[in-house]
């Protein structure tokens, strides 16, 4: 394509049109750049890499040792509209003025057309556009984990500790607002010290960055945990403000409705008390007839619905592979030491010391829970930022050219291209080349709702196949809670 070092190749890997903001990475010697076709571009994050001395530079005349110049790693937010399965070249130029960046603000509040989030005296409050006010919106709870690598179990005599943020910093730019929340907490170091007074202590550090964008219904969150404690469970508490006895959790090709809590007559069905800690696939929603709150996650795989709160497990660290007779699981477990020939198996890495990062998003909407709307928001949240910039500062960042061998063949490649674009309400779970037919591709459409959906016009003449790529009798619709796979040339 003959890209210069001021041209970004931006991709939309989805098969539907994307309209919103993308974050691209620009490696530049200066912040004095502009995007003529995107005047609302802003720098949301900037890191400077210092000059390096005596760096080896290989030349035809021999090795030289040079001074490598410093450069900026810039994360830039661009409002874009990209058709399905496409790329577009975005250009920027050097100017005399710096590209607008995030500016610090004294007020501890961020807002857009959907939600307002404020922080005051350690209390995080959310207020929706339709008037729902929620205090203690986000907090944490930390407690001892006397369980093993299979199951969490509480420590008898331990009291869970609720943690709230201590400070907030606000930064804004056109189209984006961020709230950075921090907290540092001194807690008992391990199981033994949970029950001692005085006790050995460790430090748990939490940082959350909440982001609101113009026109975006999601409150985006990035959470960083620095853990130096042993054998404990840390959970993020999302206060929904919705009183209900059930929740809706996503599954592949659908949702499951779960009742919260443990049945009062559980002994009539179970030999031991069930624990309502549930797996979290992609998102979890609670709703009544007036409002719905949905939480979307990446890397958070467990939740519990308690009262009006969704408790999301961040860490559940432990020191042993298997332990017998837990409070939450009586009897023996695989890997315990109550069987002849079984040794005590320490699991030091299961203490999960150090740094851990999580992404999540939260939305509030009026009305009852909608499978279709929730699935669409989940698709939007999962959309990746894929971009490429040809540059010589750092060969390990988003590189394509150092993996492609050049040839003498000259190709004419357009500056923008869309392979296929499906209607925006279509959910695609897979798109890849056929395993059996050259120049053919497979597109799998999923339907996570209780009603059949119409097959898009562009796919109505394509072959409908199964997982073995055997042609099936054509259907006119994608059945409820199901999927169809199509094979066609692109």
Helix/strand-derived category reads mainly beta
List how many beta strands DSSP finds.
37
Q: What order do the strands of the largest sheet run in, or round the barrel if closed?
A: 10-17-18-19-20-29-26-25-22-23
Number of domains: 3
Radius of gyration: 26 Å
What structural keywords apply?
Immunoglobulin-like; Gal_mutarotase_sf_dom; mainly beta; globular; Glyco_hydro_38_C; 3 domains; 3% helix; Glycosyl hydrolase family 38 C-terminal domain-containing protein; 6-stranded antiparallel beta sheet; carbohydrate binding; alpha-mannosidase activity; 10-stranded antiparallel beta sheet; 490 residues; Beta-galactosidase, Chain A, domain 5
In words, what does this structure look like?
The protein is mainly beta. It has 3 domains: 7-101 and 391-418, Sandwich (Immunoglobulin-like), CATH 2.60.40; 105-382, Beta-galactosidase, Chain A, domain 5 (Distorted Sandwich); 427-489, Immunoglobulin-like. The protein contains 2 helices and 37 strands. It has helices at 191-194, 371-382; strands spanning 7-12, 18-28, 33-34, 42-49, 52-59, 62-68, 71-82, 86-91, 93-94, 103-105, 109-111, 115-120, 123-128, 133-134, 138-144, 161-163, 167-173, 176-188, 201-213, 219-227, 232-239, 246-251, 254-259, 278-279, 283-287, 291-298, 302-306, 309-316, 354-366, 386-389, 416-418, 427-433, 441-447, 453-454, 463-465, 477-478, 482-488. The strands form 9 sheets. A 10-stranded antiparallel β-sheet has the order 10-17-18-19-20-29-26-25-22-23. Strand 12 (115-120) and strand 13 (123-128) form a beta hairpin. The radius of gyration is 26 Å and the shape is globular. The two termini are 21 Å apart.
């Amino acid at each position: 394509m003959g890209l210069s070092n001021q041209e970004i190749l931006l991709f939309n890997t989805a098969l539907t049109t994307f309209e919103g903001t993308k974050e691209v990475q620009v490696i530049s010697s200066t912040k004095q750049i502009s995007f003529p076709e995107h005047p609302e571009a802003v720098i949301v994050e900037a890191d400077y890499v210092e000059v390096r001395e005596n760096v080896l530079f290989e030349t035809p005349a021999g090795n030289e040792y040079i001074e490598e110049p410093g450069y900026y790693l810039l994360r830039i937010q661009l409002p874009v509209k990209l058709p399905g399965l496409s790329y577009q070249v975005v250009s920027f130029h050097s100017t005399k003025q710096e590209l607008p960046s995030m500016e610090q603000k004294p007020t501890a509040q961020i807002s857009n057309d959907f939600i307002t989030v404020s922080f005051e005296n350690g209390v995080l409050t959310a207020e929706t556009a339709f008037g729902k006010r929620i205090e203690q919106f986000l907090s944490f709870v930390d407690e001892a984990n006397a369980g093993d690598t299979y199951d969490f179990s509480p420590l008898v005599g331990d009291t869970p500790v609720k943690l709230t943020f201590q400070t907030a910093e606000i930064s804004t730019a056109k189209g984006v607002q961020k709230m950075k929340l921090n907290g540092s907490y001194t807690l008992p170091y391990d199981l033994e010290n949970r029950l001692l007074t005085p006790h050995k202590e460790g430090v748990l550090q939490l940082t959350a960055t909440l982001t609101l964008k113009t026109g975006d219904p999601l409150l985006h969150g990035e959470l960083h945990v620095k853990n130096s404690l042993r054998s404990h469970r840390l959970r993020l508490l999302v206060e929904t403000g919705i009183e209900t006895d059930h929740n809706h959790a996503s599954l592949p090709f659908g949702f499951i409705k779960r009742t919260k809590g443990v049945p009062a007559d559980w002994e009539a069905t179970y030999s031991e008390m069930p624990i309502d800690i549930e797996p979290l696939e992609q998102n979890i929603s609670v709703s009544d007839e007036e409002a719905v709150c949905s939480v979307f996650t990446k890397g958070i795989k467990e939740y519990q619905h308690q009262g009006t709160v969704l408790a999301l497990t961040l860490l559940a660290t432990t020191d042993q592979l298997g332990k017998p007779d837990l409070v939450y699981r009586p009897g023996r477990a695989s890997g315990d030491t109550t069987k002849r020939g079984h040794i005590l198996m320490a699991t030091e890495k299961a203490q999960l010391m150090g740094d851990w990062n999580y992404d999540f998003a939260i939305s509030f909407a009026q009305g009852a829970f909608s499978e279709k709307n929730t699935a669409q928001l989940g698709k939007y949240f999962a959309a990746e930022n894929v971009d490429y910039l040809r540059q010589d500062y750092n060969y390990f960042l988003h590189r394509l050219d150092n993996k492609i061998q050049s040839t003498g063949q000259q190709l004419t490649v357009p500056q923008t291209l869309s392979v296929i674009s499906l209607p925006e309400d279509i959910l695609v779970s897979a798109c890849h080349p056929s395993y059996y037919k050259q120049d053919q591709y497979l597109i799998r459409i999923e339907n996570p709702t209780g009603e059949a959906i119409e097959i898009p016009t562009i796919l109505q003449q394509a072959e409908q196949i199964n997982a073995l790529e055997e042609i099936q009798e054509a259907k006119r619709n994608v059945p409820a809670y199901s999927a169809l796979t199509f094979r066609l040339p692109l």
